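Just curious. Protein, please.
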Amino acid sequence: MAKKRERLEIIRDILKAVRDSRNRIKPTRLLYSSNLSPQMFKDYIDELQEKGLLGANEEKDDKRTFSLTQKGQNFLEEYRQIENFIESFGL
């Protein structure tokens, strides 16, 4: 059985999915990538937008996409440094 993801791991996964899709991803694709229920997904997206880590863009034909803000990119960089620090101690 797979280990349950922690809150920060879910946030990291959402932000990485956006970054890996060239910083523009549609909500449905991001929902699938995040592997969350629709309600949990909405809660996380709302929080990430509220905290300024994720931006929403209205495209042509009223299509919505998400992109990383500078703060979101900084979060991913800092998170990677923390992971490297933890791994250096074999934890």
